[in-house]
Write the structure tokens for this entry.
Amino acid sequence: MNKRGVPLRGFISEDKIEEIKRRADIVEIISEFVTLKKAGRNYVGLCPFHQEKTPSFTVSPERKMYYCFGCGEGGNIIHFLMKMKNMTFPETIRSLAKRTGVLLPERNASGADKKELSLREQLLQINEMASQYFSDMLRSSYGKKGRDYLVERGIHDFTIETFRLGYATEGWHALAKFFVSQAIPPELVAKAGLLVEKEGRAPIERFYDLFRGRLIFPIEDEQGRVVAFGGRLVVPGEPKYLNTPETPLYTKGRYLYGLSKAREGVRRFGYALLVEGYFDLLSLWNVGITNCVATLGTALTKEQVELIKRYTEYLTVVFDPDEAGIKALERNLRLFLSSGLKTRVVVLPEGLDPDAFVRKYGREAMVKILREAPSLVDYYVDKVASVGKTLEEKRDAAREAIDFISTLEDPIEKNLFLKKVAERIGLDEGILKREATATTYSLTPRREMQTVMEELPRVELNFILCLLEHPYLIEKGDAEGIIDYLLHPRLKSLAKTVRQRVKEGGTLDNFLDELEEEDLKGQLLRMLIEEKPYRGDEVERYFSDITRQIKRRWYAKKDEELMQYLKLAQAKGDEALCRSLLLEKEKLLREKRMI
């Protein structure tokens, strides 16, 4: 297993992995997350891994690789899906195998890999069984309270089926007994967060149900797999809402409720709609507004915003208009602004949340409000301008606005923002801009912090790439002893490793996976994604040109060193050493002419 936790051998055969990568259409798959446009042999788009305005994310169908020239992220389709979907290596391979029609043989994983994978698979299966159990309970006589509550809230059958809503009965051990009847140990069910263990009880009573007397909302990942549950009491009590605790499957702040269902709606509407609660989302779905996702009742996180960015660059936010909702919205304004998402903000009238508003006024009224929603900047300007009218209040408002725009990268956007603020609070625009320039937050865009990478000789990197892409050239390189002519110590060491790995049957992808030096990996990926400097039938001629350049660089370096030694010998008056060095210099010159 390499440092990234990717088991590359002894789990799924290398041949099968290579077959999957060959069959997978990297452009088609990445296009599900990134809008790509043809650019020569490659495709380009906005990078999903960092904020940018000019496309630097490149996909090569020929190489079956991607690389971002802005942030340095790169790799093959397996790496892409692992990062985008937060999946393990085995999960990604199985998903791609299913998509490409590759049949996977029985696995032979290591004990640790098998144990980790087995636990995740078992917990996913347990969650699926629990989801079906809760759904059956809702339909049964035990679920009447749950059904009555859904009728009261106006949730349609189609929405109930779409989101697989369920019901947990009031009993303390109903779910526990169900899993015992299925021969699944309660200790394992507890690891899924569905049972709670209480010490000191008899074995039969030691585990009790987490969810009791609650309407159940299965929480799915992007692939539609149940990773957790939310539950709402259908009678008065506290806590009103309860979610699964963190488990090996579920980490708070990494999921959005309804995302797996909303992707098609987001594409159709052209933007994502972010709400707070389960019922806000369900009521919107009731009336055909299907591009919405919800925050699962927790503070919005950067990870959740990044999830939205995978599917759209446009976002409309509708938070509850109560004090808590407004505070949550204002707390997240900077997050939205820095994300690069083109964000609009809706505060519904009459203190209504989306659920209550759409039930009272209907779909058309909601669509109208969404269509007329102000931009995030306009919303913030209105908020700042309404703070007060005194000179001191205006000054404080201006400084707050200057601080707020520190997260904006585009200097034009910053200037337009300051212009609006100046107009709304009645300050001279020039004064406001001078004040902004004088603060810590300059109007010039802040540049991304980039790791300073050592400049490596490109010709030596090209030599290494040739060995990786065309293994038969190793014999030619060995015959000429080219590796000994490499000047850069890191690349000489790398070339020796490549030679050994290729002779052992390793592939380019294997080698990149195992390469722990990120700057080297980044530069190799960057060069791989660029257009090849030769046609398919010119490989050997290109390789010969490279080896000649490498030798010439080596001889030039040796000649330079000899000249330095010669100057020192002359300065010391050492005639014998001077003659010896001159002879060596003549020998080098003769050898150089032979190249």
